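User
Here is a favour to ask of a fellow structure person. I am asking you to supply a protein in sequence and structure-token form. Please set it down just below, with no commentary around it:

Assistant
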Amino acid sequence: MRALRHAWPGADLIWIAGRGRSAYAGALAPLMPGLLDRVIEECGVGSGLRAALGAGRLDALIDTQSHVGTTLALRLLRPRRFVSAAADYWLSGVRPPRGYRKPRRLIRRLLDLAAFAAGRPAVPDGRLALPAEAVAQAAALLPAGPSYIAQAVGAGGRHKAWPAGHHIALAEALAAQGRVPVLLLGPAEQDLVAPLMAALPTARFPLQDAGGTADVALTIALGARCAAAVAADSGAGHMLAASGVPLVSLFGPTDPAKFAPWAERATILRAQDFGGTETAAIPVAAALEAVAAAAAAGSAPPPV
């Protein structure tokens, strides 16, 4: 979204979810002011979409899906510029340069679509503009002074998560160094809250202090107040990456070449480099070393 707004600063930017709902109208909506003007949901890709868009011809239409039938239906809208990676750009009105190879990284593919549509490099510049209330709440939950290290405990699939025992050992080692572990647990990790609180009495649990919310803007604002962060391949990892905090990203059964967060400063630790395939194979000592290096090379102290 930042790359699209950079390319078209004065345009009416519309996100279309023809056959479903969009996070841009839900959990991510508080982050969209100034970036996205409208979200259209569950309108189909034919007459319903045409009616939802209203009169006039689209200047540019970027097709982010890969189903050829849907792409053909979208072409019937006759935008002035149409970009689609479906069928290796065969149906696209704008083609990649000769020799182009589709990147493995999903976010890079989307940025390439934006670049082809704009006719110039995609620039996802600047940090997200967070709601003032989320920034203020994060400051109250993590007051200035301590060196906080965020630990995102869960993952959308538990098979991708680093074990809770590893997080406990890492938090204890960080506390012994004088740092304050900040454990981030969402609704799917509620069964871990009590045992982690019992094991780590000096750690902070800001999302629980905020009522157990899984608010995206608050999570990003909390990350911005930390010296470094560690997360598995998870939504929380992407939120922390968006905060600009130096991130240690842990990967096991999934491929970082495809799923790594778009982070300003990231260190990738792969289970395969430690002789395993599950995220649990990443040793606590390796994560501790990477977190310490990330924090040492990090940015200025968090805002007051």
Q: What stands out?
A: The chain has two domains: 2-118, 132-296.
